[in-house]
Amino acid sequence: MLETLNQILLAMHRGGWILLVIVFFAAYILLANDKHRGFSISQQIARFFYIVLIISGVYNLFYLASVAEIFPWNYAAKGIISIWVIYLMETILGKKNRGELAGSVRTYYWLQFIISLVVVVLIGFEVILAV
Ligand code: HEM
C-alpha cells in the first residue's frame, strides 16, 4: 500500500519537475510580453506544481528513509535546495510583475536560480552526492 503510493507520487515527482520548469519559463515569457492574463494562469499552474513536488518529494524522502539502510541525506539536502528553487521562482515572477527585476537584482536572482536548479537536478539524478 505504502509502496504503491510511493510509486504514484514518484511518477508525479518525475513528471512534475520538468512541467514546473516549463510553466515557470512560460509565465516569465508571457509577463515579459505583457500578456498578464496568460501570466496569471501560468503562475497559478506553477503554484499547483510547487505543492505537488513538495508533497511527493517529502513523501519519497520519508519512504526512502524508512527502507534504506542509511538515511538519504543527499535527498534531504536536495529537498532543502528545492525549496530555495521554488522560493526563487516565486520571487523572480513576483518581482518581474512589480517591475522590480532589473539590473543587478535580475542577475542576482537569475544566477541563484540557474545554479540551484542545476544542483537540484544533478542530485536528483545522482550525478553528484550519490550515496
Ligand atoms: C523545484 C522543485 C524540485 C525539482 C526541480 C526536483 C527535481 C527532481 C529530480 C530531477 C529528481 C530525479 C527524478 C528521477 O530520478 O527521474 C528528483 C527526485 C527526488 N526528489 Fe525532487 N525536485 C524538487 C522538489 C523536491 C522536494 C521539495 C523534495 C522534498 C524532500 C524532493 C525530494 C526528492 C526525492 C526524495 C527524490 C528521489 C526519488 C527517488 O529516486 O526515489 N524534491 N527531484
TrEMBL record:
Signal peptide: none annotated. Keywords: Cell membrane, Membrane, Transmembrane, Transmembrane helix. The chain crosses the membrane at residues 15-33, 45-64, 70-89, 109-130. It comes from the Bacteria. The keyword Transmembrane helix applies. This is DUF1516 family protein.
